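> call design_seq(struct)
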């Protein structure tokens, strides 16, 4: 009996992937460029596990004797967004990119959305920065009651509304309508509710964001864990990313701090299974907004909370009775890079438990290596369609049996 605490540092990539040129991302390096600006960044807990010892890591000082296992993973699927990244982690390969709309959505999609949602029309319909577009059109939205519809370089249909005009629940219903329309060749990865309010000086987003994702393939790692009678406790936007697939219980969060609070609290609730956490502020608040200092300070705050989590973990009492922390990312979002989009990068792969055999895991060929390893850690004897478990390299009994 044991638990895996799987934490996704949303967008914290670690250097351009070999195919970065295919995504116009040559030269990106999320953590490397942050460390260039803030070389004295204090992340002692990440470093102690082996963060700075990962092959290809730039800027983070290695430690002499890491206490965890450390490596990096390369994405196999054709994308660099949240959905594709997370889906690959649980064993879903996406060989073709989800549809994107650099020129806005087709007229027939918008017309059907207006008709079925009952709104008096929409504003915009193009690629935009969310924080910019709500301030450009916020007054008009309030006057006309027309939702703001926009997209990005990702496969997303985003709807922004002032909470004083439409309640979050009313906005969510609009998103459900859009989700039902966006099928077939227009089956976008996510429909995103973007509620906002006036703070006295400008329009600002609230924490009532919701993602309405396309359904993932099943079975996947989460449904397999659930069907084995174990918990899949989702923290943050995990439930939305997987459209509820395989989730046994979920809690949404306001920000990274709340996400870590909920993750630590989950240790008192989940006795056997997976605690799966996404910390989205790295991406949404600092990465896309190109806030390098905010990103750096967010990493320091996460590192402190990681220390709390490491202290609260269960201790090793037998072959399958210990908690283990797995840390990775879903893509990059280099805040020093051109534009405001995600970046095609390697992601870190860190594992820590008091019993773990520290080692260099080098480079895995798929994000699904993390999911395959989670499956082994939960003693589920199945194999995902993609991904290789690294269990045998980190578990003392496995190593002893192979010597």
């Amino acid at each position: 009996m044991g638990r895996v605490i799987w934490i996704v540092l949303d967008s914290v990539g670690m250097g351009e992937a070999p195919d970065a040129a295919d995504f116009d991302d040559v030269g990106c390096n999320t953590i490397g460029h942050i460390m260039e600006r803030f070389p004295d960044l204090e992340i002692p807990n990440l470093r102690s596990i082996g963060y700075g010892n990962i092959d290809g890591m730039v800027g983070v000082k290695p430690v002499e004797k890491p206490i965890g296992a450390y490596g990096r993973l390369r994405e196999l699927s054709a994308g660099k967004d949240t959905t594709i990244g997370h889906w690959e982690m649980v064993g879903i390969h996406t060989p073709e990119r989800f549809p994107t709309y650099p020129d806005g959505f087709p007229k027939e999609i918008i017309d059907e959305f207006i008709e079925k949602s009952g709104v008096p029309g929409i504003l915009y319909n193009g690629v935009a920065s969310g924080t910019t577009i709500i301030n450009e059109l916020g007054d008009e939205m309030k006057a006309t009651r027309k939702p703001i519809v926009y997209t990005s370089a990702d496969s997303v249909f985003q709807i922004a509304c002032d909470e004083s005009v439409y309640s979050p629940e009313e906005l969510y219903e609009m998103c459900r309508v859009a989700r039902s329309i966006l099928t077939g060749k227009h089956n976008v990865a996510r429909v995103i509710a973007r509620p906002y309010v006036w703070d006295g000086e400008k329009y600002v987003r609230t924490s009532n964001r919701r993602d309405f994702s396309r359904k993932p393939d099943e079975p996947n790692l989460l449904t397999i864990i659930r069907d084995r009678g174990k918990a899949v406790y989702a923290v943050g936007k995990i439930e939305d990313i997987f459209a509820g697939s395989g989730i046994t219980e979920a809690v949404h969060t306001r920000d990274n701090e709340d996400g870590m609070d909920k993750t630590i609290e989950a240790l008192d609730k989940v006795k056997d299974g997976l605690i799966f956490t996404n910390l989205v502020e790295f991406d949404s608040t600092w990465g896309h907004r190109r806030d390098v200092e905010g990103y750096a300070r967010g990493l320091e705050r996460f590192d402190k909370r990681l220390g709390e989590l490491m202290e609260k973990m269960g201790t090793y009492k037998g072959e399958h009775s210990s908690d283990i922390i797995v840390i990775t990312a879903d893509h990059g979002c280099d805040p020093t890079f051109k534009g405001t989009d995600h970046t095609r990068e390697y992601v870190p792969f860190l594992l820590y438990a008091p019993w773990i055999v520290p080692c260099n895991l080098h480079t895995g060929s798929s994000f699904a290596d993390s999911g395959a390893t989670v499956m082994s850690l939960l003693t589920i004897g199945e194999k995902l369609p993609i991904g290789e478990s690294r269990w045998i390299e980190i578990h003392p009994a496995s190593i002893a049996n192979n010597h």
